[in-house]
Amino acid sequence: MNQYLEKTSRSPLYLQLMQRIRNDIGAGVYPAGGRIPSEQELCETYGVSRVTVRKAILDLVQEGLLVRRQGKGTFVAGQRLRRDLRSVTGFTHACTACGHQPDTRLITAQLIPASAEDALLLGLPQDARVLELCRLRLCDGEPVLLEIARFPAAYDYLRDEAADASLYACLNRHGVIPSSARRDISLGHATPFVSKHLGADVGDALLLLDETVLDQHGAPLHLSRQWIRGDKYTFRM
Length: 237
Description:
Elements: H1 13-26, H2 39-46, H3 50-63, E1 66-69, E2 73-76, E3 81-84, H4 91-97, E4 102-113, H5 116-122, E5 129-139, E6 142-152, H6 167-173, E7 180-189, H7 192-198, E8 205-214, E9 220-228, E10 233-236
Parallel strand pairs: 3-10
Antiparallel strand pairs: 1-2, 4-5, 5-6, 6-9, 7-8, 8-9
Helix pairs in contact: 1-3, 2-3
């Protein structure tokens, strides 16, 4: 059904299209997590060019209302998870606190030589080795973040637990309590490796969280870097 936009309006066509899509989302025409029509379908429905459609979609993606998934299309963003950075909690807690189901896919688990930065931040000798865990974290089956965490080799027992949802729960069972953290949050971009696992396009903007977590005695526990889909996750400070 044609729903052509007002080409004589003072409002640019892409802004009119953005508002139409917002209205349809608000009315439930496109539900949370649902796929919106393809660029070609939107062109035909609203009588506009592909350039106009792409501009409208890009701006709605940047607003966080829509999300693009590589090879699948453009979807309405769902409810974002909220993580409180005032305490040391992990992804599992953020999921369950919002009533969602967390899941984990273990990509790699290996002992590797510590880099100079690893040794400095973890208080290790230069010839030490660290346990590196690379895991994809999912919420209700949807990829949300990709994390690489490095622990002193003394925590090698975590390798057997790495496919479980919560490493922190495992640490607690061993009497280790993550108690404080130093964090840096910045804007990152999807590399080919990150894109492959998160389902983002190469170069897409992502939240980048770097952490140094300390245990209850103030000793360095682990380092981590997380590439996070901004349409799925938000932080509270």
